[in-house]
Write a structure and sequence with these properties.
The complex is a heterodimer of chains A (386) and B (367). In chain A, a hairpin with an 8-residue loop joins strand 6 and strand 7. By secondary structure, chain A is an alpha+beta fold. Chain A folds into three domains: 76 residues, Orthogonal Bundle (Butyryl-Coa Dehydrogenase, subunit A, domain 1), CATH 1.10.540.10; 109 residues, Butyryl-CoA Dehydrogenase, subunit A, domain 2 (Beta Barrel); 138 residues, Butyryl-CoA Dehydrogenase, subunit A, domain 3 (Up-down Bundle), CATH 1.20.140. Chain B folds into three domains: 112 residues, Butyryl-Coa Dehydrogenase, subunit A, domain 1 (Orthogonal Bundle), CATH 1.10.540.10; 96 residues, Beta Barrel (Butyryl-CoA Dehydrogenase, subunit A, domain 2); 146 residues, Up-down Bundle (Butyryl-CoA Dehydrogenase, subunit A, domain 3). In chain B, a hairpin with a 2-residue loop joins strand 4 and strand 5. The chains are: A alpha+beta (386), B alpha+beta (367). The interface between A and B is large, with 51 and 50 residues. The structure holds flavin-adenine dinucleotide. The site of flavin-adenine dinucleotide has 21 residues of chain A, from strand 1, strand 3, helix 11 and helix 12.
């Protein structure tokens, strides 16, 4: 056990810090071109797709360097390293693993260069947690598939260029996860319609996506016909260490502490309220637990042991903290806590009020807590399946 | 960066696990716990031979000179089987002597401890639920050639087994530790929930102790020893909680109700998943805290308060749900899960409960 970094790891951290000092001006000083310059600069340094193989334009970055990069970026509250979160998180890795040479050449560089934004068409109105039951239909017709059906909750559908789409190509398969096929579809395809959905916080991030006789060339199929489920599963398994999230959560905890220091409760400083102190300390314990859980799992990976479903542990912590921390701030501030951005007495410009209406992004969007519990119970504890 | 155990530590873990299975299975634990002193000299000698009693004692004093992270391996693994060996008491006393004792006190007391010839225990606070220098209230009077102690130390772990007590006393407003041999005090065993962790009161009736049996104890030392106590207890909680989870999980796979194993019902499986999350989490926090003891002591107070603050209540709930998920059989004396509930109750207040530790986290974090 040791928490020292090697000389080259320390040097890498220094390199990232120096870069951030020079290339990340305070928010107020950022001009219109800031984001595109930023994306070009981090790309030039090989930090986009940092862990991807060099042959695909990545940097073959090691596990510890990845952690350092994520940690430093989160500490500096830097913008993302690419414009397509999903492209980098699972579409790119999926294409590298299952794609043809032509698909790799066609799609990977654009993801790395932030030229193309991807969205994910998995969930349907009747199939969310039970993803393997999806019904959106694709029928082979010569060198095309013809797609009919509906996706929903598709984040970023309104501004994405491409969608990674799960379709059903066989309805008579023995098991429901057979007969699923993964297609890559441009969002401007004929017959594809996007209808944004407003969420309870008033944002329009996700949308319904309708497919009416949408023609998709066979060379835009990812993996073999009927192999779509494996493509999805292995792509989702690409999520790595949670260090970036943990760092951001420690930052959020610091802001909460500042809030507590400047707030009174029943006329007395909130810092003297035992429940308040205890609640904050328990947040800190859970975030620290996420950090050290992550480091233990990272060590396993470095030693070449496969990670199975351990990441569900941190996902459950993240889900409950996501709800509890914002809720705590809102409750602490009483009626002022209710004011949204723009309110005369809004706390931290309404950040907490707004966030306390946005937790489903994290808590439902990436697989619900109950599903994480099933995963832990069945895969880690060996309990019988539902 | 490496947050894993070494090959040697893994071997040590296997050695302890084998010992618990072969030499000290739960039937043996029950037998020892029911004996008069809750102590088995033969087991103790075996532990000494295996080097566990001198693990953190330097080589020059007959120990092995390892770190608290190594001791953590022994405590976690032995607590999995609810070992009744007073290793925690011995290790804390050794740590106190190393920290507060003179070179000659160390040379005199540590070697017999490493050899297992002496059983030591440490008792710091008199108040049952207060971690603070003011909670040390047993007083001693200074005399020409030492001190005289009068009064009672009410809560002393493993006191029936020990032949030396390292007792915190107040000597004219200063704190001190004093090493007291068994035959100069009277010890009364107390009926307690967890018989694998026997507790007794120790009474001092005009006990004179020479100057060379007195060690100065600063408030920093007191706080440090309290933190080590919390590290040791939490290490044991990790092993015991994991065992309770395992036992309950296996039961849930076997027990059939309504035609299916109860582990298929989410009321059962989801609670077990949540327990898994908690145990994984306070385990990670504890490993880090144990590492800080020798390698980053400035971080110890926050690290151990995070770990014990989390573990104390989580393990208490695991103890209760371990029984609940078993149904009535879990309530029977014969079935072992109830022993883990008792251990969780015992561990909760030891060296600070969750209220103490979480409030300290808040204070250390600037609140
Ligand atoms: C903000 C946001 C963004 C999203 N973005 C996308 C996206 O970009 N692309 C995409 O494809 N999808 C997206 N989703 C959809 C998301 O993946 C699903 O919402 C999620 O998988 C849950 O499915 P569901 O909403 O249909 O709920 P359901 O599956 O109907 O679940 C309803 C409730 O029942 C529980 N439940 C279901 N099955 C079980 C079970 N077996 N045991 C116990 N409890 C169970 C769930 O935990 C939940 O509490 C997004 C969702 C949100 C909220």
């Amino acid at each position: 056990m040791d928490f020292e970094y090697s000389d080259s790891e320390v040097a890498f951290r220094e390199e990232v810090r120096n870069f951030l000092r020079e290339n990340l001006p305070p928010k107020a000083e950022r001009d219109r071109n800031f984001l595109s310059t930023w994306l070009a600069e981090v790309r030039a340094r090989g930090w986009v797709g940092f862990s991807w193989p060099k042959q695909f334009g990545g940097s073959d970055g090691g596990l510890i360097e990845q952690t350092i990069l994520k940690e430093e970026m989160a500490l500096a509250k830097a913008p993302p390293l690419g414009s397509s979160f999903m492209g980098l998180a699972w579409v790119g890795p999926g294409i590298m693993q299952y794609g043809t040479q032509a698909q790799k050449e066609r799609f990977i560089p654009d993801i790395l260069d932030s030229k193309v934004t991807w969205c994910t068409g998995y969930s349907e109105p009747n199939h969310g947690s039970d993803l393997a039951s999806i019904q959106c239909k694709a029928v082979r017709d010569g060198d095309h598939y013809v797609v009919n059906g509906q996706k929903t909750w598709t984040s970023g559908a309104s501004w994405s260029d491409w969608i990674i789409l799960l379709t059903r190509t066989r309805f008579d398969a023995d098991a429901k996860h057979q007969g699923i096929t993964c297609l890559l579809v441009p969002m401007d395809a004929e017959g594809l319609e996007v209808r944004p959905i407003e969420n309870m916080a008033g944002d329009r991030h996700f949308a319904e996506v309708f497919f009416t006789d949408v023609k998709v060339p066979v060379d835009q199929r990812l993996g073999a016909e009927g192999e779509g489920w494996s493509v999805t599963v292995s792509a989702l398994a690409n999520e790595r260490s949670s260090i970036g999230e943990v760092t951001a959560m420690f930052g959020k905890l610091d802001t909460l502490k500042e809030l507590v220091r400047s707030t009174t409760k029943q006329g007395k400083p909130a810092t003297q309220d035992l429940k308040t102190r205890r609640t904050l300390a328990m947040f800190e314990a859970k975030i620290a637990a996420m950090k050290y859980n992550g480091l233990r799992y990272l060590t396993k990976q470095i030693n070449g042991e496969p990670l199975t479903s351990e990441t569900s542990v941190n996902k459950l912590h993240r889900a409950s903290l996501e709800i509890e921390m914002d809720d705590f701030a809102v409750e602490l501030c009483g009626q002022a806590g209710l004011q949204l951005p723009g309110g005369d007495n809004a706390i931290h410009n309404g950040r907490w009020a707004k966030a306390s209406l946005s937790w489903p992004n994290v808590v439902i969007g990436g697989g619900t807590p109950n599903i994480q519990r099933n995963i832990i119970a069945e895969r880690l504890l060996g309990l019988p399946k539902d | 960066m490496n947050f894993g155990f070494t090959e040697e530590q893994n071997l040590l873990r296997e050695q302890v696990a084998r010992f618990m299975q072969e030499v000290c299975p739960i039937s043996k634990v029950r037998e020892v716990a029911q004996s008069a002193n809750g102590f088995d000299a033969a087991l103790w000698q075996r532990a000494a031979e295996l080097g566990w009693l001198g693990l953190t004692i330097p080589e020059k004093h007959g120990g092995i000179g390892l770190k608290w992270i190594d001791l953590t391996v022994v405590l976690e693994e032995s607590a999995r089987g609810l070992s009744p060996l007073p290793i925690v008491s011995q290790a804390l006393a050794a740590a106190a002597i190393l920290r507060c004792g003179t070179a000659s006190q160390q040379a005199q007391w540590l070697p017999p401890m490493a050899r297992g010839e002496a059983v030591y225990t440490l008792a710091l606070y008199d108040d049952p639920n207060w971690i603070d220098p003011a909670a040390v209230t047993l007083t001693a009077k200074r005399t020409q050639d030492g001190i005289v102690v009068n009064g009672t130390k009410a809560f002393v772990c493993d006191a029936m087994a020990a032949n030396y007590y390292l007792i915190a006393v107040r000597v004219e407003e200063e704190l001190a530790l004093t090493a007291v041999p068994r035959d100069s005090v009277s010890v009364t065993a107390q009926p307690c929930m967890d018989t694998t962790k026997p507790m007794a009161s120790v009474q001092f009736d005009e006990v004179s102790l020479p100057a060379d049996a007195v060690l100065p104890l600063s408030t920093t030392d007191l706080s440090y020893l309290t933190d080590l106590g919390a590290v040791a207890i939490t290490a044991e909680m990790v092993g015991a909680a994991e065992a309770a989870l395992h036992m309950t999980t296996e039961y849930a796979k076997d027990r059939i109700q309504f035609g299916k194993p109860i582990g298929r019902y989410q009321g059962v499986k989801h609670r077990l998943a949540d327990i898994y999350v908690d145990v994984e989490s306070f385990k990670s926090l504890l490993y880090f805290a144990a590492w800080t003891v020798d390698d980053s002591p400035d971080e110890l107070p926050r690290a151990i308060s995070l770990a014990k603050g989390y573990a104390s209540d989580a393990f208490a709930e695991i103890g209760i749900d371990g029984i609940g998920l078993h149904g009535a059989i879990g309530f029977t004396a014969e079935y072992d899960i109830q022993l883990y509930l008792k251990r969780s109750k015992w561990a909760r207040p030891m060296y600070g409960d969750s209220d103490y530790h979480l409030d300290r986290v808040a204070a250390l974090g600037g609140l």
